Amino acid sequence: MKQLLMHGHGELLQTAVLEDGRLIEFYMERSENSGLVGNVYKGRVVNVLPGMQAAFVDIGLSKNAFLYIDDLLHPHLEKQAAQKPAIQQLVRPGQELIVQVMKEPLGGKGARVTTHFTLPGRWLVYMPAAGYVGVSKRVGKESERTRLRLIGERLLQGEEGIILRTAAEDESEQALAADVEQLRQQWNSISERAAKAPVPSELHREAGLLRRIVRDAMTHAIDEVWIDDSSRHSELQALLREMTPQLEQRLKLYERTPDKPLFEAFGVTEQANADFQRRIRLSSGGLLIWEETEALTVIDVNTGKFTGDNDLEDTVFKANMEAADEIARLLAVRDVGGIIIIDFIDMEDEGNRERVMSRMSEWAKRDRTKCAVLGWTRLGLLELTRKKARENATQQLTVRCEACGGSGKITVGIG
């Protein structure tokens, strides 16, 4: 049983996904219009930094956006020059530029932007100048992958590119063609506005959280959808009728009561309170120590109270495998992004090390957010990366301690 739960309170909307009662995803947004990722702007290059191969672009926000050279080159790798040019050959200060936000402003940094434009639809992602067809890796059957790729090639015009999403599996060519046409018209409207708009200005705003949930998360794998906000229930019902009418009957309105809120009734509150701690107990007695910085997350695996059987290597291997499963779930629940380093308990058997890495790789393939397992470092740490586009749930749910400044320690005994 897979359930999607939505709790609305004023401008805040929190969303949880449960699988057989276990929390596997959690995300929140404070306003339907608060996010910047996906927005398209007409901006002006403020300065070019040859040493960083990057430029800063004024798009009308409080901080200038950061544009790296790779996001200026052709989106199709095979169509890029063998030798990467200098950034100053591509842009100059004062130049007007159309860009799309790919990462929210985080910490003291401005937004990161790109010229590799993408417009997501229900079944596919439209790329106006990519020149290739891609199919989601989650579409497992090779015959279906081939069918989707051939349909995609028939739908392309000129330099267009598309990526067929997992949701496109078994969909008709007619449905996919309608999605392409709608997104094509959307891009044409953006281009027309860009020709007349002043600098800087917003040309396109990405869909709000509710529409994104229907577009990205509402699949046939979801058995029930519960929401406790009556006004948002009506909006969600209308979106389902428009985008996925066959799933409308799975939507249910939860009648709130002071003693049994939605998240408490389904056990989300209790699980989330445990999942967002620094120290996380595993069911076997093992322990995870979780440390997050702005760009790096470090996870330490300890046996804790787990003693296993007589064989030490087997005990360590079992503890690490359980930790791998739990870490994969928590990465999605906490929506961790950036570099992730996992210090598993040392294993002598190379085969066991490979099995632990394979387990993490299997989870990475299932992750709705792009995640890659890079392998073991020379110090025996497992290194991963996970796409970071928005402020994660931990940052939104917690505040910095005024006493220790977020370090978890208070200096004593000086002077």
From TrEMBL:
SUPFAM superfamilies reported for this sequence: Nucleic acid-binding proteins
GO terms under biological process: rRNA processing
PROSITE patterns: S1
Sections of the chain in a coiled coil: none
One cellular component term from this protein's GO annotations in UniProt: cytoplasm
Recorded superkingdom: Bacteria
Domain S1 motif: residue ranges: 38-103
A GO molecular function held by the record: hydrolase activity
Keywords annotated in UniProt: Hydrolase, Magnesium, Metal-binding, RNA-binding
UniProt keyword annotation of Hydrolase present: yes
InterPro entries linked: NA-bd_OB-fold, RNA-bd_AU-1/RNase_E/G, RNase_E/G, S1_domain
Cofactor: Mg(2+)
Gene3D superfamilies given in the database record: Nucleic acid-binding proteins
CDD domains named among the record's database cross-references: S1_RNase_E
Name assigned to this protein: Ribonuclease G
